[in-house]
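User: Continuing from earlier, I have the next pair ready.

Assistant: Great, send them over.

User: Here they are, in order.

Assistant: Folding the first of the pair now:
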Amino acid sequence: MGYFVKYAIDKNWIGESTRMGIGFLAGFILIITAHFIRKNYSIFSSIIMGGGIAVLYFTTTIAFREYHLFITEYSICYYLCDYSPFNFPFLSL
């Protein structure tokens, strides 16, 4: 599956917005998975949560800087929300 996605991206069968959709979907899947396994595997859940946040961060950065899919105000709002102290208690629920 991963090889097919890589091949499709190389051949430009998958567009830029679809690539970003795949990235956002992967990030949210990691965060949701971390949320469901947090009771039994607390340390591993924290690692998965950090990976999900990193995937969302890098996907947003690439969408803004390389593909110009977002305007500046949306990207700045995302970065401010990402580093906001109010965001961390929400992610620990």
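And the other member of the pair:
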Amino acid sequence: MKAAYVFLWTLTGTQEQFDELIPDLINWLKKLEEDDHLLACGSWKDSSGGLTLINADDLETARKLHQGNPLNPIGNVVEYEWDVYYANLSTSADFKLI
């Protein structure tokens, strides 16, 4: 059974390093989405880090997928297995926050 895995990333490098890696990050995220592994992603408003929510069969698979994140060399990552109780993960990205 697939589960949701949260990867919280915090920038330890420079903003310039981050900006240079954005095209690679977008390509990596597109690949995750094409393979039905990307549930959600985004950065904090101050660009100090972000979150990637990955759909995978197990934690080891999710870790392998996240190893492809081009931002990993300029940041720290904390991972969590998320027990989703009150969400429909098939909802489109056009949902409204309440």
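Worth noting for the second one:
Residues 3-36+56-82 form one domain. The chain is about 30% helix and 30% strand.
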